[in-house]
Write a structure and sequence with these properties.
The complex is a heterodimer of chains A (341) and B (794). Chain A is 2% helix and 54% strand. With 341 residues, chain A is mainly beta. Chain A has a single domain (40-337), classed as AttH-like fold, CATH 2.40.370. By secondary structure, chain B is α+β, with helices and mostly antiparallel strands. In chain B, 63% of the residues lie in helices and 13% in strands. Chain B has 24 helices and 20 strands. In chain B, strand 3 (86-94) and strand 4 (97-102) form a beta hairpin. Classes of the chains: A mainly beta (341), B alpha+beta (794).
């Protein structure tokens, strides 16, 4: 048995789990997100152990000296076995890190797993540091240092925030289904990023823009929701759009979006305001070209993957990669698709 | 009609229950030996596969403390955070169960996690509730824990989370070793900086033992096959006899209008039912045999792996299938001839009372011819055989040819002997023995095969042991071996050890390619250790002198065979061409190996400095030297290997192999003895008409009985005399053809005359015991029965 199969049995992602990756399972004993939460920082940058799942999720669109586009991902997931912290081997917190670098013709992936309570992986709020093994993301959220490595790639990056935090949904309370499942969700979409990618062909100095998502919940998906398509798009005029489409077993969709004006003010969009329709699939059957609209802001764009094969060969596999935007708006962004096999 | 016909056919067995018993017992015993050996093989393999995967030993490099002390959590986390993908392991004992604590999130591959997917629940395993995985007997010994029973768990081992293991072993915070995941990140800090007190231990080179145990299993399998062949001879005999005796019944049935096809089908069905019954009994008996043998095999494996191996047997469904299949297949093979003859039998052929004997007599010529053909093929194969299939074909031709030729040879010998007979009784004895030969020939063939198998397998196993012991002496000549961690430590060691010991022999090696074969090349210092102990299979004059002078190279047998090389051929090593001065035996090593002089090696590989050393030192000084070494330098006792321990372990393994072989020998002889008993009992009733005249002419019944016994022993002796060279030929084929094909190395053959003498004695005792009862019965035949022969012969 390989570690992959093992993690399937160890993370609460078993056959009877519901929704994608067990995100729709019951929440007994865990706290549940409520509207009108008042966020406090830096505390909320840290972990919320009484919630079942949580992530620190950074994606970046990068450009090399020759103009080549690159994508980069640094993610740390927390998955609780019980709503408590704990110290030592009995700690009930599991950590999973995903790192990736996408080039137009290659996709490098690495995954790390670790136990909470022993120092191998974790997050502290003040000073802020998120780490698993030798991977780190640390700083004061105005500037952050980030690194990760795999068996065939590595990177070291410096990030500098150029704008405010953005809260999704109702002031950070992001509804995920018609039944009311929700998560706390905010982002820092305004990072400038610069650093070095270490790839098999050598080091590549890169610069670009990064988007850091923070989200935690105990049951973010409805039991009938099997996956999502998530877009974070940065347009050349300075506006940004975060939108997602949740797929349901009944064939219907639930959509949600946040429009971020160039000045940083954000507007939540209700179910149905944002649409995303697949145009082309890659060989694996995963859509890699999308028609995305937000009529309320005159957005009607085509989103195209820079590398069709940005499949994350991790314990829970999914597609995650950089995209370009054409149509009513020009720009770039990141696309994440789950629930495809 | 079918029912009536079947009833008529079966009635034969009611009248001759002994024949039925022979048939069933022969088949059951054959199946038992076959499935017993298979069971031992399968169980042993399963056991050590589970053992080696659970422990992850042999597959992964590890980090351990130089001083052998436990590693602390801080060091583990520091390594992880420096980019070292390592996973902690702790082992210990609780209620005599080996507890293995692993960290499932970081453990590589299959390690520790065998079959954990079934029934695992996250919170139970990781979050401190004490969930474990183990076999059923482990669960019984750990009543305080939730043990999830796993079919493929290593015997006597429970796998649990490291946190729980630390807790129940009372070793909080301690880690025994860190397993290094094979795929590491492209950048990581130096081990020296993060954890200078840790040392990397290379993965065990488990190939040696794997190859040797494979060879051991091949021996066992060959033995099982031979035992089965012996059994099939018995079955063939019983079926043949039954068919001959039922000729009148068959003739009558056919005359009454039963179609031939239906008759053949019914008889085939009848046999299949018998073989199913015998197969079930055989598998059960095989299970008993395996259960008796397994503790020895388990002990062997415990020696091999130093880990717990199950000494108990699980009855696996696959045995039933293979056991019944072999019983059915064997019966089919044994019965084909008889059924074919039945289908060709003239409808009105006369019922012949002595049909079997006469038919056998007619067949003798044909058999002798087939034997001659098979033995000729065998001779050709001896010279040309390449590969495993040809090797087994050679074995088959040899055994079947010899068995079929036996009656002819015995007949010739007896005919020669009868010429020297002077007295009337002696002349009658020889003639009568010749006349009985056809009836006994099948049993004697079985005895021949059993003895030949015993001689062959004993020779092979003993040769194996002798060779291996010698090989160990040769390869582990140095009393002590030392692994150093880095060049500085190596220098320290050489400086420290040189004035204190007889010799320090550096061991330097590198991977290369010679004659397109992957090869490990060794640079070797000129020392008497090598000159005195290494035995060459083939060598040029002064091979050590020229090699140490850097002019020639020595190859192991595997490399020479695969590359088609022999002494005098030239090979190229990194652009240098040099002749081969010698080829040495390298048993159990799967890959090529070559030896060149130390200086030449340094010239070719200037970047390689020695990190392993052999130390020549008086054996009794070894413990003190190790103690002083670890006290006065930064080397630890863990970096040294005391070769005496390795040798003792290896020898213990072969003692066990021996026990298993002896038990199997006795079982096969028992089967052969049984065949003789059954043949004699069957013949006894038919012999009254032949003995009655001898009795009437004045020989006492006791005299006749003694002669019967003498005859059985005489035939056994003759068979044994033929079996000995056959067995040796068998051993030769196994060692020089089959082993080479299977493993790439040839085992030299040694002879063990005392063993053969003992075997011969056993065979005689078996034959005598088998003849005793029929002889006694004959001696007590009521005179009235003998008289009846004259009054009412037919």
């Amino acid at each position: 048995m390989n570690v992959k199969a093992l993690i399937f049995c160890l993370l609460p992602i078993t056959a009877q789990a519901q929704g994608f990756a067990g995100l729709g399972t019951e929440v007994e004993g865990y706290a549940v997100p409520q509207p009108n939460r008042i966020f406090t920082f830096p505390e909320d940058h840290g972990p919320h152990s009484d919630y079942r799942i949580e992530w620190w999720y950074l994606t970046a669109n990068l450009t090399g000296p020759d103009g080549t586009d690159y994508g980069l991902q640094w993610t740390l997931f927390r998955s609780a076995l019980a709503p408590e912290e704990g110290v030592g081997w009995t700690a009930a917190q599991l950590w999973m890190g995903h790192a990736a670098v996408t080039t137009p013709d290659a996709h490098y992936v690495s995954e790390r797993l670790g136990r909470g309570g022993i120092g191998q992986a974790g997050v502290t709020a003040d000073p802020f540091a998120a780490w698993i093994d030798d991977w780190t993301l640390s700083g004061d959220w105005t500037t952050l240092a980030m690194s990760a490595s795999g068996s065939d790639f590595a990177y070291d990056m410096e990030l500098t925030a150029q704008g405010p935090l953005v809260f999704h949904g109702d002031a950070g309370f992001s509804v995920k289904s018609a039944e009311g499942q929700a998560s706390y969700y905010y982002s820092q979409p305004y990072f400038d990023i610069a650093g070095v990618l270490t790839l098999p062909d050598g080091d590549v100095p890169v610069t670009g823009h990064a988007w850091l998502d923070r989200e935690w919940s105990s049951q973010p998906l409805g039991a009938n929701q099997t996956g999502w398509d998530w877009f974070s798009l940065s347009f050349d005029d300075g506006a940004k759009l975060m939108g997602f489409r949740l797929q349901q077993t009944d064939g219907a969709d639930f959509t949600s979006a946040t429009w971020i004006a160039p000045d940083g003010t954000s507007t939540a969009m209700a179910d149905g305001a944002f649409t995303a329709a697949p145009l082309d699939e890659n060989a694996q059957g995963v859509p890699v070209r999308w028609h995305v609209t937000l009529p309320a802001r005159d957005v009607d764009v085509t989103v195209t993957a820079i590398n069709d094969n940005a499949w994350m060969t991790t314990s829970v596999p999914y597609w995650e990669g950089p995209v370009t935007v054409t149509g009513s708006h020009q720009g770039h962004g990141y696309l994440e698709m789950t629930g495809y096999e | 009609m079918t029912r009536v016909t079947l009833h008529a056919l079966l009635s034969h067995w009611w009248r001759s229950p002994l024949q039925l018993f022979t048939l069933l017992a022969g088949l059951a015993l054959a199946t038992a030996l076959w499935s017993g050996v298979q069971a031992v093989n399968a169980e042993a393999r399963a056991s050590y596969r589970a053992a080696s995967t659970t422990l992850g030993e042999g597959s992964y490099d590890r980090l351990a403390r130089r001083d052998g002390q436990p590693i602390d959590l801080t060091t583990y986390v520091a390594l992880r955070r420096a980019g070292w993908l390592v996973s902690p392991v702790i082992t210990g004992r609780l209620n005599d169960v080996r507890i293995i604590g692993v960290e499932p999130l970081t453990a590589p591959g299959s390690m520790g996690a065998a079959e954990m997917a079934q029934g695992a629940d996250v919170a139970g395993f990781i979050a401190g509730q004490g969930q474990m995985f183990g076999s059923a007997d482990v669960a019984a010994r750990l009543p305080d824990f939730t043990v999830i029973i796993s079919e493929n768990a290593a015997p006597n081992t429970a796998v649990t989370d490291i946190g729980i293991a630390q807790d129940i072993l009372g070793r909080s915070g301690e880690i025994d070793s860190l397993v290094i995941v094979p795929e590491q990140p492209i950048r990581q800090a130096d081990l020296e900086q993060i954890a200078p007190n840790l040392i990397r231990q290379r993965a065990q080179q488990s190939t040696d033992t794997a190859q040797l145990t494979d060879s051991f299993h091949l021996n066992l399998t060959a033995f099982g096959l031979l035992s089965f062949a012996v059994g099939i001879f018995i079955v063939n005999g019983a079926i043949g006899l039954a068919f001959e005796q039922r000729r009148p019944v068959i003739r009558t049935l056919r005359a009454l209008g039963v179609p031939l096809r239906r008759l053949v089908l019914l008889m085939a069905a009848e046999l299949m039912i018998f073989s199913m019954v015998a197969g079930v009994v055989g598998v059960f008996l095989g299970y008993v045999i395996a259960a008796l043998l397994l503790p020895d095999v388990a002990a062997t494996l415990r020696g091999l792996y130093g880990a717990d191996v199950s000494g108990t047997l699980q009855l696996r469904p696959s045995w039933w299938v293979s056991g019944l299949a072999i019983a059915l297949g064997g019966t089919a093979v044994a019965a084909t001839g008889a059924l074919w003859k039945l289908s060709k039998m003239p409808l009105l052929a006369a019922a012949q009372k002595r049909a079997l004997a006469m038919a056998a007599g007619r067949r003798a010529g044909l058999q002798a011819m087939i034997a001659a053909i098979l033995l000729t093929i065998c001779l050709i194969l001896c010279i040309t055989a390449q590969g495993l299939i040809a090797g087994f074909a050679l074995l088959a031709c040899l055994l079947i040819g010899a068995a079929l030729g036996l009656p002819f040879v015995l007949d010739r010998v007896l005919s020669l002997a009868s010429r020297g007979a002077k007295s009337i009784v002696a002349q009658w004895f020889w003639a009568d023995t010749r006349q009985q030969l056809p009836g006994l020939s099948l049993a004697l063939m079985a005895l021949l095969l059993a003895m030949a198998a015993n001689v062959g397998v004993s020779t092979m196993v003993s040769s194996f042991r002798t060779t291996f012991t010698g090989f160990l002496e040769q390869r582990l000549t140095s009393e002590l071996y030392v692994d150093t961690a880095n060049p500085a430590q190596a220098d320290t060691f050489v400086a420290y050890a040189t004035p204190r010991v007889d010799a320090v022999l550096p061991i330097m090696s590198s991977q290369t390619t010679i004659a397109d074969q992957p090869t490990e090349i060794y640079g070797t210092r000129d020392h008497a250790t090598y000159r005195d102990n290494w035995q060459m299979l083939e060598a040029a004059r002064d091979h050590w002198d020229t090699t140490f002078a850097g002019q020639t190279i020595l190859l192991n047998e595997q490399l020479a065979r695969r590359g088609g090389l022999s002494v005098g051929d030239r090979v190229t090593v990194l652009g240098r061409e040099m002749p081969i001065a010698g080829i040495y035996g390298d048993y159990g090593n799967p890959i090529g190996q070559a030896i060149i002089a130390e200086d030449l090696f340094a010239e070719i590989y200037p970047e390689i400095t020695p990190d392993r050393f052999g130390v020549r030192i008086a054996p009794e000084r070894v413990p003190d030297f190790i103690a002083a070494l670890s006290a006065e330098t930064d080397l630890s006792a863990a970096q040294t290997i005391n070769q005496a321990g390795i040798k003792a372990l290896s020898l213990a393994i072969f003692e066990r192999t021996f026990t298993v072989t002896t038990v199997l020998n006795i079982l096969t002889l028992t089967v052969a003895g049984f065949a003789i008993l059954m043949s004699l009992l069957t013949l006894a009733s038919m012999r009254v008409p032949q003995l009655a005249p001898a009795w009437a002419m004045g020989m006492t019944r006791a005299q006749l009985g003694r002669l019967e016994l003498l005859r059985a022993v005489l035939l056994a002796v003759l068979t044994a005399v033929i079996a000995l060279p056959l067995g040796l030929a068998l051993a030769w084929a196994l060692l020089s053809v089959v082993n080479v094909a299977a493993f790439g190395w040839k085992l030299p053959m040694y002879l063990f005359p005392m063993d053969y003498a003992r075997l011969g004695l056993f065979a005689l005792i078996a034959a005598a015991l088998a003849a005793l009862w029929p002889a006694r019965r004959l001696a007590r035949t009521p005179p009235a029965d003998l008289l009846k022969v004259f009054s009412n012969e037919r």
